[in-house]
Amino acid sequence: MTQKTALLLIQLGTPDSPSTKDVRRYLREFLNDPRVIDLPWLARKILVNGVIVPFRAPKSAKIYQELWQKSGGSSPLLSHTTNVQDQLQARLQGEVDVYMAMRYQNPSLCSVTEAMKEKNYEHIIILPLFPQYASASSGSAIALATNLISEWWAIPQMSIINQFWDNEGYIDSIVARASDFNLADYDHILFSYHGLPERHVDKVYPGDQLCRDQFCEDEINGTNALCYKATSYATTRELARKLRLTPEQYTVCFQSRLDKEWLTPFSDEVVKELAQKGSQKILVFSPAFVADCLETVIEIGDEYQEIFTEHGGKTVQLVPSCNDHPRFLDGLEEIVRQKM
């Protein structure tokens, strides 16, 4: 007899609107997560609520307004993720009910899991839409979802997908996006991943071991399989293999840093250095983001273009994210069927 199964897709989150009020609410929830800013409770509250959010919310609201305008008046992250949910539901109709929630803001994990509770599912598959595991993204989403479900009187079987960077459909969808561009036309190629504090990846390792001692740039092994830096480099190696790129043609880098103690090299500095060395056209992939969002459309598409032009370059071309590409959907469907 087939189990009554639900799939729970989880994305990071988005403000309900680009208004300062909604952006402030989003940032307060996001940055107060102890898996995002891993400071003691009181220090985090003072820093986030007293310093970061009051100063950052008005500036971020202007950026979100620009993003909304570029994306037809709505959040591209929400639109693309809803499309993925709808198309997966069509593929899995009669076998699995597909739900979608945001870790921060709406549709909230609390409201979505409450709706799922009423259906008495025997099996819930939890799939955060973050290809490379990080405690601040995948870990936070998994922790909250499982905590909410564990409060039910009847707790169903749960299957958790904590990362899928090596899924063939995911990789192939990025390669397919690249087919819209002639790679030979570009002086250099960047694979830009969202940044993390170095201490976050160091916490993956037991005792006094550090990420920098694990050969994360070169291999995945039994020790670093859940290290974000290691899986980012592994993702890039697989993409480079399929795109037939030599190591000299590309650079792995990390964006959206808050201070100098984050993973390096920093994407914005790499963009600046390439322009100063004479590069005129660069192509940028963003493999950590499966849906286009502020970090891809605005940070890479606009802000890095400004940096590149300012220092002598001409064109920064963003490769669109997986979004709802059929090969990405193939990959997600494969992951779900393996867990059924």
UniProtKB/TrEMBL annotation:
Coiled coil: none annotated. Pathway: Porphyrin-containing compound metabolism; protoheme biosynthesis; protoheme from protoporphyrin-IX: step 1/1. Its main location: cytoplasm. Fe(2+) binds at H194, E295. It is an enzyme of class 4 (lyase). One of its GO terms (molecular function) is ferrochelatase activity. CDD domains: Ferrochelatase_C (cd00419), Ferrochelatase_N (cd03411). The keyword Cell wall biogenesis/degradation does not apply. SUPFAM superfamilies: Chelatase (SSF53800). GO terms for cellular component: cytoplasm. Its EC number is 4.98.1.1. It comes from the Bacteria. Keywords: Cytoplasm, Heme biosynthesis, Iron, Lyase, Metal-binding, Porphyrin biosynthesis. It is found in: Cytoplasm. GO terms for biological process: heme biosynthetic process. It catalyses: heme b + 2 H(+) = protoporphyrin IX + Fe(2+); Fe-coproporphyrin III + 2 H(+) = coproporphyrin III + Fe(2+). NCBIfam families: hemH. Belongs to the ferrochelatase family. Catalyzes the ferrous insertion into protoporphyrin IX. HAMAP family: Ferrochelatase. This is Ferrochelatase.
